[in-house]
Amino acid sequence: RLLVEIEPMDFQSIVVQFSGTGNSLWVARSVADAFSEQLIPMSEYLLKDTLKQPFFSLSERESVGFVFPVHSWGVPPLVKDFIRRVRFDSHESPLIYAIFTCGDECGYTGRMFQHLLAERGWKSRHIYALQMPNSYIVFPGFDVDDKALEEKKKRRAKEKLPSLIRAIADDEPADCYITGSMPFLKSKVIYPLFCKYALNSRPFYATDDCIACSLCASQCPTANITLIDKKPRWERNCTQCLACIHHCPVRAIEYGKTTQKKGRYTFR
Ligand SMILES: Cc1cc2nc3c(=O)[nH]c(=O)nc-3n(C[C@H](O)[C@H](O)[C@H](O)COP(=O)(O)O)c2cc1C
């Protein structure tokens, strides 16, 4: 994997992450490695019945880092759910920072994240963003980046990440948040529509090319795929991360007609 070269640091922080195609996982892993700390998948904690209210014990100096992709210029619904449920002991206001990964721009995701934290009486000290290869392919007009842009974004992210990790350890801001154009329209109008209508798994299907490898099911962070005769069937708990579509090794998964001519991407 693309290794980020950085000296381990004396900074304590658990890192909670959510990722569909691996970009945010790579970022979160790099941060956790630098701090020799624990990496926590938000989705797993939401799936365990006994842990519907995820609970973490923090030491006094320990921060909490949130790393996740921007979805439709907002906070992915799964992350919203996690923020509403999670509890941290011994901290009335845990030290929080966040790194968002986005294909292009974040809109008001930062504000949205702060609002969600404020509902819990918390505040993120810093919000950082990193552009990474795009994973959104469902809507007409959106596709993965071409190979050259994909490599460029990964190279740039690899160069930038060490300075972000240093900024986290030094409790400093970094000028890297990309709001982009028309944030009100994107985050306040389109994002609510995305949450209401786009988390629909009904258009997913596997073509005859499916080799019944079950990778789609094992990659799904919400365990939304059941295997019937080893072929995927999508249930109703989709968060639209598109992990299933992108991870399929034989390109046998489609979402209606819109993805048929689109590219596929996973971080590697
Ligand atoms: C449902 C969905 C919505 C997305 N919306 C945005 C967006 O609003 N702005 C953006 O720049 N990238 C957007 N993207 C691209 C991802 O944020 C970006 O590729 C991210 O790095 C993927 O992270 P992951 O590999 O950890 O899932 C979207 C991707 C998905 C799957």
What attributes does this structure have?
globular; Rossmann fold; 268 residues; 8 helices; Alpha-Beta Plaits; 32% helix
Characterization of this structure:
The protein has 2 domains: about 15-185, 3-Layer(aba) Sandwich (Rossmann fold); about 200-255, Alpha-Beta Plaits, CATH 3.30.70. Strand 9 and strand 10 (about 230-235) form a beta hairpin. The mean pLDDT is about 95. It is α/β, with parallel strands linked by helices. The chain has 8 helices and 11 strands. It is globular, with a radius of gyration of 18 Å. The chain has helices spanning about 25-35, 40-45, 75-85, 110-120, 145-170, 185-200, 215-220, 245, and strands spanning about 15, 40, 55, 65-70, 85-90, 95-100, 125-130, 205, 225-230, 230-235, 255. The strands form 4 sheets. Strands 2-1-4-6-7 form a 5-stranded parallel beta sheet, with helices on both faces. Strands 3-5 form a two-stranded parallel sheet. A two-stranded antiparallel sheet has the order 8-11. Bound molecules: flavin mononucleotide (FMN). Flavin mononucleotide (FMN) binds near residues 24, 132 and 267. Flavin mononucleotide binds near residues 22, 73, 104, 134 and 241.
Overall body shape: globular
Q: What's the number of helices? A: 8
The CATH superfamily of the largest domain bears the name Flavodoxin domain
| The number of domains | 2
Helix-strand makeup class: alpha/beta
Rg of Cα set: 18 Å
Number of strands: 11
Mean pLDDT: 93
